[in-house]
Amino acid sequence: MKIVKWFFIVLLLMFASLAAYLTLVFDPNDFKPEIVDAVKKQTGRDLIIAKDLSWTFFPSIGIELGDISLSNPKGFDNASMLEVKKIVAEVELLPLFRKQVEIAQLNLDGLVINLETRKDGRSSFDGFQSQSTAEQSVQLDKPAVSSASLSSLDIGGVSVTNTQIRISDKQAGTEQVFSLDNLTLGKFSLGEFATLEYRFSAEMPDIKLMSLGQGSIKLSQNMANIQVKDFKITNAIAGETIPNKKLDITLLTQVEILLETKQVHLLLDKLNAGDIEAKGKLDIAYGHKVPHIIANLDFGDIDLDKLLPQTDKADKDKTKDKTQPETPQSEPDLSAMKSLELTLNLTAKSIKASNIKTSNWVMDLTLENGILNLKRLNANLYGGKLAVTARLDGRQAVPNYSFEKSFTGVQIRELLKDAADVDLLAGTANFNVKGKGRSLLADNIKKNLAAKGQFEIADGALYGVNIPQMIRQAQAKLSGDSSSVTSTEKKTDFTSLTGSFSVVKGLASNPDLLMSSPLIRLSGAGTANIISEALDYQLTTAVVGSLEGQGGGGQDLLYGIEIPFLITGTMSEPKFSLDTAGLFDAKLKQEVEKVQDKLKDSLLKRLGGF
User: Residues near 589 by Cβ (< 8 Å), separated by ≥ 6?
Assistant: First the structure.
């Protein structure tokens, strides 16, 4: 017992001597002038440590600092570039002798950073860059020193509160404020989970963000792996450019970071962004020169139209006003595509974009060496199937692309109504196109697109025109019938509509349009300008059956005559017309041929009578 008693007495005397030495002999405040002078010499800035440094002792040894500031260059709006209200760091003393680090607490409160860029280009970092570059060169020349291993690491808690970063750019006229209200790490030990939570906010010119996070974190005993468990993040984003001016995003995730192999595995248990729900998995290998990401994502219903900025009428009117000078456009910078490798497998229950509805998405794509390769995109589309493959090469200043697209069994009327608000065509459509082009600017896409394709529409109708009625009206004029011929619906039924097309320099050419029905046949060629949307079709139609089925009656005087039929106007407002002059010429020619045939028959009969 005496030995134990004397042991504690000696130990107490040692701590008392250490405390007396640190407080009476080794005063950290003696170094304050040297630190201030060194900062002034290296940066030209003023470092102020207003509060005296103070020690803390048994059972932990630590130091407390407060009221620290570092000045901005002269003439800046904020006198201080950096301010710290309070810093407290305490380490348990006895475990240090066993190569064990037990941090009692780490507290940082009231850190404020003011970063400013003046109109003349001067910034808060002036004076730091040259010194940091020199330090880096010195560090590169030094041999690497391996860090000592620890048998344990325990932290009683970490607390960061009232941290704020203000970024002012006078050249751009923007102001941004990022605030970390609190970051708290609970009692932490190697190999054990510790609670982790934060509260963060940001104010940017067009967006405000509020973010909350809470979960658990663990560092493995060998400090090679980091695990984050059940980490829930809740974000609230508000701004004029945000759909409905507000968007709430929540996610629940599990994360594993393998420090030795430089890999990150992220399991996305749940993601909610507005009305969008998703889950999936991300595997990231960041140890290579180009990081590689493998993503498997499964979405529910996605309405992209709700997420895109709404264009009001005023904006549309400005777009239509051609007198306003156009802002020069430049190609998007796709150089970042070379800094990442991506393999993405995506499925979705449904996706709505530009009012077009699709469902049962299956998409596979890769990004490698600056080339985006859409290997597969399959989806249901208006009663049919959609299949797309595509390739985008972003290695050049002007990107180039190629694609192949097809759909089968699609109800074309519903598709056209939703996609372009056009009620022109109905039927079950099969369509395929293969093309390529350069540039991603909207106007250049139309100008530079080169494509070829075919289409076939069965059991459909052409809306906006009743060709049999137009023929009956022409027939009535030829027969001298002044009574009007009317129809309740402007629609032309057909059994099939087929053709092929090619697109060059913004002009789609269709050389072999053919429409067949029990009543009429329509054929010919035409063009559609995809830039101006102008239509120019010169067709011929002929009666091949009785018009009685669509309101006609009596004998069809125009049976078998090829009647010129024109389609002009635009894609949204097409105009249909019969060429009346051509019709009369064709009818006159038919009548002349009939008379000639009768004369031939009559002459043959007479000659045969001799």
Answer: none
Q: Identify the three-state secondary structure at position 332.
A: coil
From the list 393, 318, 311, the residue with the least C-alpha distance to 354 is: 311
Share of the chain above pLDDT 70, in %: 73
116: CB partners within 8 A, 6+ apart: 72, 76, 77, 78, 123, 124, 167, 168, 169, 170
Give strand ranges (E) for 286-368: 292-303, 341-353, 356-368
* Cβ–Cβ under 8 Å, residues 522 and 498: no
Round the CA-based radius of gyration of the chain to a whole number and report it.
Answer: 39
Confidence band for 224, pLDDT divided at 50, 70 and 90: very high
Per the CB < 8 A criterion, the answer to whether 49 and 33 are in contact is no
Crossing angle (nearest 10°) for helices 580-609 and 467-479: 60
> Residue 595 belongs to what H/E stretch?
helix 580-609
- 12: confidence class by pLDDT, cuts 50, 70, 90: very low
The predicted-structure confidence for 357-375, as pLDDT tens digits, reads as follows 999 999 999 999 999 999 9
- C-alpha 547/C-alpha 552 separation (Å) is 5
* pLDDT at residue 28, as a whole number: 61
Closest residue by Cα to residue 114 from 79, 153, 88, 146: 79
Say if residues 161 and 199 touch (Cβ distance below 8 Å).
no
Mean pLDDT of 220-231: 93
DSSP state of 286: -
This prediction has a pTM of 0.75
Separate counts of helices (H) and strands (E) for the chain: 9, 30
Give CA–CA dist 227/217, Å, rounded.
6
End-to-end CA distance of the chain: 161
Backbone phi, psi, residue 578, to 5°: -85, 140
Reading the block at residue 43, the tokens are: 């940066």
CB of 421 closer than 8 Å to CB of 414: no
Answer with the residue of higher pLDDT: 201 or 127: 201
Each residue of 135-144: pLDDT tens digit? 444 444 444 4
Structure tokens at 509: 């050419």
Question: Using CB atoms within 10 A of its CB, is residue 193 exposed (0-12), middle (13-18) or buried (19+)?
Answer: middle
